[in-house]
Structures are given as C-alpha cells and as structure tokens.
Amino acid sequence: MSDGVAGTEVRTADGILTGSDEEKALVKAMQVAFPSSSHLFCTLHCKDNVRRHMDDVGIAKDIRERVIALLFGSNGVSLSADEQTLENRVAEAMRFIRQNNLPIVEYVLQRIIPKLRSNCMLTWSNPWLGQHANWSNNNCESIIIFSSCLLIGKLPE
Predict the structure, then answer these.
(1) Whole-model pTM?
(2) Which of 51, 113, 117, 133 shows a CA-CA span of 20 to 30 A to 84?
C-alpha cells in the first residue's frame, strides 16, 4: 500500500465503526467518508466535557462528581449491559440532576445521553468490540477505525 494508498481497494466484512472524541467536524467527516459506518464516542472526552460544563455553570465539586459517577462510573449509564439497565440508569441520573435543580438537564439529555446510548448499543450489537462502551482514545484528538477489512490489491488504473 505504501506506493499508492489511493489505488488500493479495501472491502469491509463487518462494516466500519469509527471512534473519536466529540469534535463535531471530525464526526461529520467520518460520516461523509464512511456513510454506512457507526460512530463510537470517547468516554474520556465525554466525561471531561460534562465535568467542564458543570464547572462552567457553577455546580459544586461534590455534586459534579456524583453526576459523573451516575453517567460514567462502574454502575453508570456508560457501562449498561442491556437496554433495561440503560434506561434505569438514565432515569436515576436524571432524577438526581432534577432533584438538585442542576442547570444541565438539556445538556445531558441532548448531548450526553444520546452518545452513551449509542456507544452501549454498538457494543451490544458488535460482540467483537468487547467492553469498549467505555472506549477512550487516550485523551488525544484522534480517530480510530474499527473494522474487519480485507485488502484485495491495487485498483485498475
């Protein structure tokens, strides 16, 4: 492939799953480049973004850490093993957020829960991913492409 990546045909056996942080332009680029792909979000970036957002709106540290645990902890939304567990954990997190009158209801419901739900659903439907619902790209601005690929050689010129 080193002499002409553009001339090499790649066929995927199981489809493509991309992964990245929450960078909107990067996620959109992956959707354009791989229109039938699914996307796994970096939980480290999601967690950091939630923590930063709560800090920006003035939520006390102990409350921030409880919200983080409800979303990303060992019994949090991000590690739900099935749909019912996921829904129960989302309800528990949202109950805590609402009971404490935290100004993050819309942020969590619109920006975070959909990403965590998508990550969980991808791991449930792709057993080869293992426990990657809490996948992290090691705190760097990068992407990864998961796939079962077959290189079939150079395309005709």
Answers:
(1) 0.71
(2) 51
